[in-house]
Design a protein that fits this description.
peroxidase activity; Peroxidase_pln; two-stranded antiparallel ribbon; two-stranded antiparallel sheet; Peroxidase, domain 1; lactoperoxidase activity; secreted; Peroxidase, domain 2
Length: about 280
């Protein structure tokens, strides 16, 4: 309840908080496992890698942890707080309420060198994504379900610039065959050439603040923001799963719950493998 209150309060002032917390969890679990290592500040840490430069939600986790420490000192790890915060972010956005497991310890290592090889890039094809997911014991069903996290959130223009090319006159045009041309031109109207780097657009152009299955309906219509989204419908290995989720929000929520539990079980540290940090931003001294 303490974590839920912190997430709800922060989301009231900033509607982008739920998506930030969910993305933060992914970047934590996919690198060193769900051990809160992405939360650690400092040179050479995961957080310092340029691939994590656009991550947000750190202060929400830190605030939630501070509340928990008042009532349950040295009992709940930052890793568990982050999992709970991401779970609550989904629920507050209209998604399912997942009953997550607890008992994770915080990792004592956070290394920038571990980031790039473990993070899915928005330009990836299905084989590249499958390789990373398989290394975490996640399968194609998990990949399709967890990609549904893009039903909320916003992204910088640079995150999907690979889908456009510049002609001899300097005009940008959509070149990715998996991208609906009208949607591509809509994106270009929001992200023209030499656009302000701070500009962001909704991952889901229809219901960007709601955790729902419209993301999959968008994929069917060629309106996936990233190439890594569009290939899920473009590849026969995952197309039917996308169609099923597009047709049934209940099926998506069921798939999300299963895969979210698998995601939050990656590389969990227990016992002497980790610690319970006093502050999420630094390893105990």
């Amino acid at each position: 309840m303490l974590v839920t209150d912190a997430v709800r309060s922060a989301s009231t002032f900033d509607q982008t908080v739920p998506a930030k917390l969910l993305r933060l969890l992914f970047h934590d679990c996919m690198v060193e496992g769900c051990d809160g290592s992405v939360l650690v500040e400092g040179n050479g840490t995961e957080r310092a890698d340029p691939a994590n430069a656009s991550l947000g939600g750190f202060q929400v986790v830190e605030s939630a942890k501070a509340l928990v420490e008042v009532f349950c000192p040295s009992t709940v790890s930052c890793a568990d707080v982050l999992v709970l915060a991401a779970r609550d972010a989904v629920r507050l956005g209209g998604g399912p309420n997942v009953r997550v497991l607890m008992g994770r310890k915080d990792g004592r290592v956070s290394s920038e060198a571990n980031v790039r090889a473990n993070i899915v890039d928005t330009t990836f094809d299905l084989d590249q994504m499958t390789k990373i997911f398989s290394s975490k014991a996640l399968n194609l069903d998990d990949l399709v379900a967890l990609s549904g996290a893009h039903t909320i959130g916003r992204s910088h223009c640079s995150a999907f610039s690979d889908r456009f090319a510049q002609d001899s006159k300097g005009k940008l045009t959509p070149t990715d065959p998996l991208l609906d041309k009208k949607y591509g031109n809509d994106l270009l109207s929001q992200c023209p050439r030499n656009a302000d780097p701070s500009i962001t657009v909704d991952n889901d152009p229809e219901t960007g603040l709601v955790f729902d299955n419209v993301y999959y309906q968008n994929l069917v219509m060629g309106k996936g923001l990233f190439h890594s989204d569009s290939v899920l419908f473009g590849d026969t290995r995952t197309r039917n799963k996308v169609l099923r989720f597009a047709e049934s929000e209940e099926s998506f929520f069921e798939g999300w719950e299963r895969s979210f539990l698998r995601l939050t079980s990656i590389g969990v540290k227990t016992g002497n493998q980790g610690e319970i940090r006093r502050l999420c931003r630094e390893i105990n001294g």
